[in-house]
Amino acid sequence: GTRIIYDRKFLLECRSSPVTK
Amino acid sequence: VCLQTVCPGAGEHPLQYNYTFWYSRRTPSRPASSQSYEQNIRQIGTVASVEQFWRFYSHLVRPGDLSGHSDFHLFKEGIKPMWEDESNRSGGKWIIRLRKGLASRFWENIILAMLGEQFMVGEEICGAVVSIRFQEDILSIWNRTSNDQMTTSRIRDTLRRVLNLPTNTIMEYKTHNDSLRDNSSFRNTKISL
Prior knowledge:
The complex is a heterodimer of chains A (21) and B (193).
Chain A (H helix, E strand, L loop, with lengths): L7 H9 L5
Chain B lengths: L13 E12 L8 H7 E9 H10 L10 E7 L15 E7 L4 H13 L9 E8 L4 E7 L5 H14 L8 E5 H7 L7 E3 L1
Antiparallel strand pairs in B: 1-2, 1-3, 3-5, 4-6, 4-7, 5-6, 7-8
């Protein structure tokens, strides 16, 4: 199957812009 | 459809695997038998998405601010951070010794690489540990198959890259079998340059 790969930059961006529901 | 115990929330970025945080602390004078080790280790939470990870991680004490003899472990859900666990039994770990003051930054970088699937070794990664000790701190990453040299070399090379380690950094590998035999995590390791 497909692997879910995230680089460090993307992960850090997710920290500063959390998902709004 | 998510069939796991913890699922990503709506609109969140799922992780390839769920991961569980564990914490352990030991009085150094007591012997580290596997029974007392299991008693001292506590599961503190499981995450399924990038957002859940950050929410959890942001509330944890930074490893560099811990005192005494303590460890944070981040393992794939279902794998206990113990040598005896089915997934770890034939495995081993890479060890990087850090001088005091570096643990928090290096721990964050190693777990981001693991959560983001940067190691490219299939199912081989089991988890990562940061061990706070008196003289130095120690980072380790555990894999399933200690005698698969292609895998262990790839993990070592990825560690060098994601942690930005100087090329002359000493890397040490120890099989969990050897740890069980001498009842020690970090003694008698195999040095690799």
